[in-house]
Amino acid sequence: MAKSCKGLAMELVKCLSESDCVKVQKRSFRECAGEKSPCIPSECVGLRETYFNCKRGQVDMRARIRGNKGY
To answer: Which PANTHER family does the protein's record reference (predicted)?
Structure first.
């Protein structure tokens, strides 16, 4: 379960690395992922929310018993 969100994290990093926030504005991944900027594509925003829900599911005891929803 510790690695169940790894695929989402890699896709989020890949999506952010191709966005204008990282390429044009030369900002870090953390800065770009942490804010709601118009230069971030909507697919990256969706990935960020899905990754957040995945990480939250690792802490939720009900999800720990059932396991994280598959990626």
So the answer is: CYTOCHROME C OXIDASE ASSEMBLY FACTOR 5
Helices (H), the chain: 6-17, 20-23, 29-34, 42-59, 61-66
Q: Please list, residue by residue across 12-21, b when 16 or more beta carbons sit within 10 angstroms of its beta carbon and e when fewer do.
A: bbebbeebeb
For the record, the structure tokens of 50 come out as 């899905």
CA 21 to mean position of chain CA atoms: 15
Count the alpha carbons within 13 Å of 21 in the hemisphere toward its beta carbon.
23
CA distance linking residue 60 with residue 66, whole number of Å: 10
Tokens of 26: 């030369």
pTM: 0.75
